[in-house]
Amino acid sequence: MNYTLKLWLIIPLILVSLKLNPIAISSFNLISKTELTGELIIFHAGSLSVPIKQIAEAFKKENPNVTIISEAAGSVECARKISELNKPCDIMASADYAVIDKILIPKFADWNIKFASNEMAIVYTNKSRRSNEITNKNWYKIMLDDKISIGRADPNSDPCGYRSVLVSKLAEKYYKVNGLSEKLLKKDENNIRPKETDLLALLESNTIDYIFIYRSIAEQHKLKYIILPDEINLKNSAFSDLYASVSVEINGKKPGEKITQKGEPMVYGITIPNNAPNKTVAIAFVKFLLTKEKGLAILNKLGQPSVVPSSTISYDKIPVELKSFAKK
Questions:
Q1: Residues forming beta bridges with residue 178, ordered by sequence position
Q2: What would the pLDDT profile of 104-154 be if each residue is shown by its tens digit?
Q3: pTM for this model (two decimals)
Q4: Residue among 298, 125, 286 at smallest CA distance from 203
Q5: Disulfide-capable partner of 225 in 25, 68, 84, 218 (CB 3.0 to 4.6 Å)?
Q6: How do the domains of the chain map onto residue ranges?
Q7: What is the pLDDT of residues 178-232, one digit of tens each?
Q8: 120-261 belongs to which homologous superfamily?
């Protein structure tokens, strides 16, 4: 009997076996599917700590052989770990997409996808002094009270830090109070911390009364917060020109170098560094995160609404598997 004839006789038997044997079908599917394995290193903004944790858990249910190592820090600090310290990183998720554009592209990364938004708020607890009288009209007066202690993040380490400065400057314009920004920024400078989530411990231990921080963090940690007017909170793209009328200088790529950061609507960005050790898994994770029914659903639930798809100047450099999540 020739080889071809034998093959035609065997194939139907294999198909029948698979049809009648669920275990065989399961094994066949496992063999035919490319399995994701290895470590995945994620550097991310502190404000993404809760979402990244939940997204990683959901991703691992589908890919149990992947070990996810996530490291939270200020977005600028995350970028510098890649650009200056050459630390291995598979995914960088920034609270400000511009950090990726300015520090990592083009030498350390090729592309950047915008994926979520947020807004600034004044956050406090039930034990914060004068919490029973603070409103979105008098918050700055209460924060300037000598008996009140306030905190904010470091502008040179964290987007939340320079956004706190921008909010203070916008507040001065909005409330028409000369010198308001300088007074707010000079108050309690000893309470400045490297990243926004470092402030939570101070707040929850009653060391400080109020902090400038993202609304999403307040919601995730079930804290009280003041919703600021859209002219101040860096949320509404309709006020882009107003936001851009204020700016702050922060440290640049090199020692002594300065970057002017203008106000703009808050948008998060994500990329895969050029030297990522595990690009295959990195692409799969970013795809999972940017999928509406998966990662984006978790982000939305946690107070960080999706902006996918958004335009990006690096669209042509985005991997084919991820192009549908952005636009030119």
A1: none
A2: 999 999 999 999 999 999 999 999 999 999 999 999 999 999 999 999 999
A3: 0.84
A4: 125
A5: 218
A6: 38-117+267-327, 120-261
A7: 999 999 999 999 999 998 888 999 999 999 999 999 999 999 999 999 999 999 9
A8: Periplasmic binding protein-like II (3.40.190.10)
Sign of the dihedral through C-alpha 100, 106, 108, 114: positive
Q: What is the DSSP letter of 304?
A: -
Rounded CA-CA distance 232/127 in Å is 26
Residue 269, helix vs strand vs coil: strand
**Cβ neighbours, 10 Å, residue 93:** 28
Please check whether the two domains, 38-117+267-327 and 120-261, share a CATH topology.
yes
Tell me the C-alpha to C-alpha distance, in Å, between residue 114 and each of 28, 140, 247, 313: 38, 32, 21, 11
Instruction: State which fold the 38-117+267-327 domain adopts.
Output: D-Maltodextrin-Binding Protein; domain 2 (3.40.190)
Is 48 exposed, middle or buried, given 0-12, 13-18 or 19+ CB atoms closer than 10 A? buried
Task: Tell me the C-alpha distance between 52 and 42, whole Å.
Answer: 9
Question: Residue by residue, what is the 3-state secondary structure of 205-234?
Answer: CCCCCEEEEEHHHHHHCCCEEEECCCCCCC
